[in-house]
Amino acid sequence: MVTIAELESDPYPAYARLRRGEPVSWAPEVRQWLVTGWHDVHTVLTDTERFTTEQPASPMHGLCGGAPMLFREGKSHQDVREAFRHDYDAHRVTDYVDTVARPVAHRVADEVFPAGCAELAADYFEPVTAIAVATHLGVDLEVADTLRRWGRVLTEVANNFGRDPAVDAGAAEVMADDTGLTAVVRRLREQPDGSVISHLLHANRRGGPRPDADVLPVLKHLALSVVEPGWLAGWTLVALWSAPDQLAAVRADRSLLGAAVYEALRWSAPVGVLGRRTTRAVTLGGREIPAGDMVAAAIASANRDEAEFTDPDRFDLRRDVRRHLGFGVGPHDCPAYPLVTAAARTALDVLLERMPAVRPAPGWSAAPHGWKLRLPGPLDAVWDGAAKRAS
């Protein structure tokens, strides 16, 4: 048996133990079946007949005012997903990096870097990616800040395994402050443009835009995607700090950053667990799981499965490229993954361009935390002097 405290502090030794001896195990603290092996996790995420994303007991329904896209199935899920899936096509993401993400990163760098030190997670990575991703959605800085706050409180709720009512109550108060977002939705109903939110309202529709019930809950839950790229950038930096030879290689050739971000997603992705519910009695990993039980598919464990990856606990940006589960798999994989990785890569690229000598502050040590959503913790850094912004 494994405890939540063990998983929150450092899940990987526990995952390795479970993969060897009990790859599908009951976690009584959260009343879920924990699935740790690659094959079984892949099965849970792709077998939509036996495992559903519908989770009517989740507090996310109340916080978001309805069912987010992640908890939808069938036509409802497909309709919403198809409305804005093409906003994340490769050519659109490339344009986004050039016109939105990189200029935002330089503006935040102008504010942060002259100090010579910073907590890069809160002061740089999160603001850069939150503003850039929110701008891509089609909102201004004020609403972007709201989405960033929502992303933080939704993270706290997702990791609130003891179901502390104070956490959920505090989150509900924050999430209720949606005046700015509802004003954007109201305006775009009448005046469509080329933004993601406009497409969510109008794409593939006959007889009028989608109702609020199909739009606002999806947008509120997407607040997580506003902060997660910042965590991914942070995890990539933590990984590079732990491997000086690979950090040196990236400093010498920043085109390696794409590989570094992709490997960081395998090594320690921000999303560690994806939830599913059984639609019928299921046999998985030699265990009998009753119908209606919750299943925690540990993608973080699957991505370090020794049967799939050589030396899986080692961060290696030169690892042979193969598909991992950092963004899930199957019909509910993350449609925004090109933008998430591009935002993280761009934030890191500007950091190393402007601050090539950035390094951990004296006394810093990694302090990751969280299980379902795993954060890299504070990234206290110092540097010798701010490089001038490239013209």
How would you characterize this protein structure?
This protein is α+β, with helices and mostly antiparallel strands and 391 residues long. It has a domain at 58-265 and 323-382: Cytochrome p450, CATH 1.10.630.10. It has 17 helices and 10 strands. It has helices at 4-9, 11-21, 38-46, 60-64, 74-84, 90-112, 120-137, 141-158, 165-175, 179-190, 196-202, 216-221, 223-242, 244-252, 257-268, 299-302, 337-354; strands at 24-27, 32-35, 51-52, 117-119, 274-278, 282-284, 287-289, 294-297, 359-360, 380-382. It has a 5-stranded mixed sheet with strand order 1-2-8-5-3, covered by helices on one side. The chain has a 3-stranded antiparallel sheet with strand order 4-10-9. Helix 6 packs parallel to helix 17 (337-354), helix 7 (120-137) crosses helix 13 and helix 13 crosses helix 17 (337-354). The protein is globular, with a radius of gyration of 21 Å. The termini are far apart.
From the structure above, extract its key features.
8% strand, alpha+beta, 51% helix, 17 helices, three-stranded antiparallel β-sheet, Cytochrome p450, 10 strands, 391 residues, five-stranded mixed β-sheet, globular
